[in-house]
Fold this sequence. Notes:
This protein folds into 2 domains: 27-243 and 256-400, no CATH class; 427-578, Serine Threonine Protein Phosphatase 5, Tetratricopeptide repeat. It is 70% helix and 1% strand. It contains 23 helices and 2 strands. Helix 12 crosses helix 14 and helix 20 (514-527) runs antiparallel to helix 21. The protein starts with a helix and ends in an 11-residue tail after the last helix.
Amino acid sequence: MPRFAVMAAVTLIIAMTLLVGHSKHRESIVFNPLVVAFACYTVLTGVSLLASNNTANAIVSLSKSCLYLVTLWILLNALVNDSWPFSSVARVISVAAFLLSGIAVLQYFDAGFRWLPGNVTPYATMANKNLLSSSLFLMLPFAIYTFLTGRGPWLLLSSISVVACSYTITISQTRSVWIALIVASIVAAIGFLFAASRLRDEFGKANLQRMRLPSVIAVTLFGVLLGVFSLYAVGSTGNEDGSRDVINFGTASMTERLNLWSNSLEMYADNPIIGTGAGDWKIDILKYDNANLASRTGDIFYQRPHNDFIWIVAESGLLALLFYCLVFGVAIYWSFRGLKTAKLSKNSALPLSMLFGLSGYMVIAFFSYPKERIVHTLLLLLMLAAVGSIRANATRTLKSCPLIVALFTIIVSSLCLMIAASRIASESHIRNALQAKELQDWSVVISEIDDAKSPVCSMDLTSTPLDWYRGVATFALGNTDDALDDFERAYQLNPYHVHVLNNLGTCYEVKGRHSEAIVKYEEALAIIPDFEETLLNLAAVLYNIGEYSEAYHRLKVIDGLASDNRYRTIMHRIEARLRGDSSGSILED
């Protein structure tokens, strides 16, 4: 969220300059097929709010789409008007890629920067090696463009940057990015062959230019081969015990993705028109089969399906997905058109490098969630704007920027900045509440949760309702009535969260509402059939109402697997009752 806030703030500043530029009658692109397609996708995301169960999540999701839309429009106009020459942008990103790769390599060899927060090395400043690898791939097209068009020190720096990116991508072992690199290379090769007949004569005349493309292929392969050598010589750091493997070809991650995709497509089938609602995937996925997922323990909550296309169709419906894909379709078409109409070989560098990046992004989006990442999305928007600028410069469809467009960008970026600021404040209070919960300082938990709740924040990052934390605190303080109200509000926000269902059932049981307690426990067990805490609670309720045989059969589900000390106590009571011995209520003890 801090990156989102920075992006919103920068966009707001630029939008205000656009308002000033309006008075100077500066030319701009008002309507562009890329912008229109992205706008339609954004509108349909907004329409899906009608189906959303959690308004706060939906608002945040929609705000991101709106900010990306105005950012795309701003970038497109900046490149068309040469406010930001693309060559300068590409050079900055090339330097950033070189620096990120350098930090990652030092981490990999334990030579520095290990103090930066993160998990499995190398991760540089991205905290995660998969995020680093995908980020570097999306920076690679800009380094390639600089290599193809640069001179002197920029030619040298960009070549080093390409090698460094390729090397780091290889040692990071992110298989989706490896696939993206292969697919993008094939698509770029097709693009080059598409334009080769027009450029053959010029390549024959300019020896230096003729060697640029083979050279960029050579330095990329050099980086990859160097990375493979390092993997065999040094190994990876992917094992929890610190041991090093050569290359990790484990299939667990892919199996998990396939299960998530299957459940997500089932979710779409249940909501085919406008989807389950923006921001609601993380809630509704809980009700689908999780027998083969890590979430079956009740301690892990998936936030996304690791596939942007399936994510969009599940949350916003098929039409939203079609417009999202249309954005890429238009951009790739224009890239090929740019290659076909390029009059000079240097003019083919932009569409060729962007074709490489866009096709690779789509592969990454098929296995991951780059649309959720600000850096990834910004790089995508830059590529889209670069391709859009080729078409705009070819057709010169420019006109004076309407006042309403400039005002719209200011309003959107201002609202996004306010939303981001509110979320950052809420997340700070949530961290304080979690710390207080660990210390069992229940009054502080209640206070911090009350401060954290806002129109744009009703859950934490695990999709657990904030009211659940409040309910746990009020229940621990002995205030069952308030706890019941808290858990009921939490249930409205996330009716498939097993801990919410379990605690709500417990409150009903304490209040003597046995049948309602049983219903909530059954709902929790429908999600996770062997959820130990709920099975124990349900057995206790069945015991208290005299259903001893049913209570016994419920507990047998976890016989020999139970880790809760209550298991033996409750089972002993049940077995005694089945033998005809009298015993008190479990809750009375």
